[in-house]
Amino acid sequence: MSENLPPQDLDLSFLYEIADGSDEFIVDSIGMFLEQTPQLLDTITTAINTGDWATAASASHKLKPNLGFFGMPQSQANIQEVELVCKAGGQNPADIITKFNDVKAVISTNLVELEKIKAEKEANL
Q1: Dihedral, CA of residue 29, residue 34, residue 39 and residue 44, to nearest 10
Q2: How far is 12 from 9, CA to CA, in rounded Å?
Q3: Sign of the CA dihedral 111, 37, 73, 45?
Q4: Whose CA, among 62, 83, 95, 96, lies 20 to 30 Å from 120?
């Protein structure tokens, strides 16, 4: 991962706030995120590697709000940059590949953390 990207912690305060004490809501929300996010990351990876900029932009656009909901504003901003570059036709593909790989690494680390949180919450159900 690039040293330019700061480590990012999950901020699940919004999720906990709207869950209002419901572990079931938290488990279901995290479950959807864990199901959708790897698929979107794979779609973006494949699209960038094949130069399918429209698909990369579309998948990036779909991922953005989820990152915000799960308290990852820096990752959300980085995916926004990826989306905008892809919408513009993938100018400087090496730069966008580096940026995407950096943000993908952060998101992947956060997915592992979310798996742990989900398992802990499921144990309480």
Answers
A1: 90
A2: 9
A3: positive
A4: 62
Long-range contacts, stretch 33-37, CB < 8 angstroms, 24+ apart: 33/66, 33/69, 33/70, 33/114, 34/111, 34/114, 34/115, 34/118, 36/66, 37/63, 37/66, 37/107, 37/111
For residue 43, give Cα distances in angstroms to 9, 17, 60: 24, 31, 9
User: Among positive and negative, which fits the CA dihedral 45, 47, 49, 51?
Assistant: negative
Q: Which helix (H) or strand (E) holds 95?
A: helix 93-124
* Pure H helices in 11-92: 13-19, 23-50, 53-69, 73-87
How does pLDDT run across 24-67, given as a tens digit for each residue? 999 999 999 999 999 999 999 999 999 999 999 999 999 999 99
Please name which of 120, 111, 122, 112 lies closest in space to residue 28, comparing C-alpha atoms. 122
What pTM was estimated for this model as a whole?
Answer: 0.87
Q: Please, how many CA atoms are within 13 Å of residue 78, restricted to the half-sphere of its CB?
A: 23
